[in-house]
Design goal:
The protein is mainly alpha-helical and 129 residues long. It has four helices and no strands.
Amino acid sequence: MDFVSIMHVITRAIEAVGVAVIVIGIAIAGIAYLKAPGTLDAYSSLRAGMGRAILLGLELMVAGDIINTVAVEPSLDSVLVLAVIVVIRTFLSLSLEVEISGRWPWQGVPSPQSLHRATERADKKDDAD
């Protein structure tokens, strides 16, 4: 086997793993939901689990596309197709991240101190009223 054939097989394997991650992740999230249906927490967990599985699968597929474009088909057309695919998948990833966490990825997680201070301020305001 030559280099291009090996890279093609590796690319397909990475993409297959990406699809498997999505399918298995959605199945696991669905099974967890079926164990505790009807609660708001169960529905939120289902959506978050499905979103995480899709995000991870998309990341793997992008990695496969990058390897394929760089190692297997290094042409201007394939680079343009890769750019479009990456833009679409990046938009999907950002949308899913906002859907899962309720905030933009660059906002970071609020520190416990900031939450505590906000709670203290709200309590003080309530006490003053």
